[in-house]
Amino acid sequence: MVERAEDEEKWLAAGIAGLQQNAFYMHRALDSNNLRDALKYSAQMLSELRTSRLSPHKYYELYMRAFDELRKLEMFFKEEARRGCSIIDLYELVQHAGNILPRLYLLCTVGSVYIKSKEAPAKDVLKDLVEMCRGIQHPVRGLFLRSYLSQVSRDKLPDIGSEYEGDADTVVDAVEFLLQNFTEMNKLWVRMQHQGPAREKEKREKERSELRDLVGKNLHVLGQLEGVDLDMYKETVLPRVLEQVVNCKDEIAQFYLMDCIIQVFPDEYHLQTLETLLGACPQLQPSVDIKTVLSQLMERLSNYAASSAEVLPEFLQVEAFSKLSNAIWKVIEAQVDMPIFGAVTLYSSLLTFTLHVHPDRLDYVDQVLGACVTKLSSAGKLEDSKSTKQIVALLSAPLEKYNDIVTVLKLSNYPRVMEYLDNRTNKVMAIVIIQSIMKNKTCIATAEKVEALFELIKGLIKDLDGDLHDELDDEDFKEEQNSVARLIQMLYSDDPDEMLQIICAVRKHFLTGGPQRLPYTIPPLVFSSLKLIRKLQGQDENVVGEEASASPKKIFQLLNQTIEALSVVPASELALRLYLQCAEAANDCDLEPVAYEFFTQAYILYEEEIADSKAQVTALHLIVGTLQRMHVFGVENRDTLTHKATGYSAKLLKKPDQCRAVYACSHLFWVDDQDSIRDGERVLLCLKRALRIANAAQQMANVTRGSSGSATLFVEILNKYLYFFEKGNPQITIAAIQSLIELITTEIQSDTMSQDPAADAFFASTLRYIQFQKQKGGALAEKYESIKV
Question: Are 709 and 697 in contact (CB under 8 A)?
Fold first, then answer.
């Protein structure tokens, strides 16, 4: 191969040298107006193009140099004609060149000037030239010669509005010339495939691929002729071109030329000749990539339909959908070994076409999806990434077009197509669906639609057969489940009964999701239910036919069972938070037994499931905070729950945690907006107990670390004293506050005290607050007046 390439370089260099030498003498002859020598040297120069040794790529380099020289020669011929030299004589004269290839190049060059002079009808000269070129049957030399003919004549074709149009010359002659040249060039191009040994087949195909634009140029010029109207295209151009395409029986030529036809002629022509164009598809060689051809055709037509609403009636008139649908069915039937990817690509293109042309015809869209299901049924689950990506594109198209999942849910074959995706791609598609819902803020308002939606996204909601969690990254899994959680807010109905049915449907699906998913999916479901409860507040007693209707009591029962499901995870801290949220909602609905039950469940979780000391501290503060806001409990129930909470506080592991929990419990005995809960003595008891624990914490620090520890706890307790002092608790006296201030001052000034800037700053800030209240004036200032700081 290397030797061959080196030889080619030598041959090309020799050819260029010979060409340049003769070109030099030709220029000298042109400069001296010596026509005979100019023709002699130009013929010798063009003889370099007779070589058979060069590859098409190298031959092209040589040809382009010759082409540049011929342009100069053409300019000379024009000058000669202007000076009175007979073009007819010149046309005769160049035909005396010794070799046929130089003779024909010169003939084409003079012919170009001959047409321009208008001394003879353009059609006669063109016909003469195109016939003469048959003298070269070597594929490469013949293709370049005819390409040269096409190049020099393209601006001299008789066409509407052209200066060469006349009584004798019409656009029909131009079309005939181009079609004849195209036919001959295609024959030469195809012949290349059958020359040379079989082992060089791949090389020949590569060379042919390099030359294909020479053949396609004729169709490109045809497509630009003003005079080629729809009737001429339908009656003459398309049938002649397709005849050549089908009869050449060559895979490379058929694919390229079909693509050329689709690209160079107007979309409206394709639409009006759809039957003819599609009729040629089954006649092509089985190995032709027909899916790409049809896909490009449908893409062109889709863009044409999208360009203007005015053209849509044309599509209906020619029944474009049924014709394309039948053509695809025939192609898939005929090519039994067509890979699934190819078939899905065709259906994807047809679906895009349908959505552009018939967006209102959901039956058409469903028909395409149904045809796809039929094809997929023979393949089972898809594994190759190309096919699955194409299916995702197919399924995404309706979502992008309608921007409404509710419309897509009406397509009965949509979920059936999804069944054939592998588990990973099924999840990808489910994410696409959820993103579409969130982006378009689509509300799914009935339980039936929710069921249909969850059938589509079931890959995210539960483990599919053969699904392995190990394959999925933890971050990806979290992102997936967060997407599902975000979806819940879009499942909403203003009708309470319908909303309850939606919640039940979602709950049914979520509970099948397994322990890994529940911590992500249960919370949004609980809050969606609580939203419905708040909407129903106060309606419970007035509802008629309570058994059949949504009521807070019913929903609370459902919530109790739902949160209980978290025990399998286990996710006790999350469950405790949700129980407390439900208790607060029950409080707002004045349902004391329900609220008490939720608190009981929270307490059981605290006692039996939460062992970590940090988690206990967090949970206890949540319990105290929620209980403090409750107004529904009677004295007995409240005392029971409060007693439990204070008991838990004293049992925390670390003394500082105990102290903070105990003084937090003081709020359970004094609630501003409830006169019945103002027990000053119990508040003082909690604060004194907190002081004792703080003192014990300091002593323990002194024993273990040799320092009495920070005064932060004492400052925090002082702030609680001030809070209840302001609220009017009679048990909180100025003397108690004063002694606590002195205690903290002593502690901070103590030599053994380890420095804690944060505690010092906190205490200083508290003293400033007292000073500020004194200076503020009013009743509160009088209370604070006696405190010395």
Answer: yes
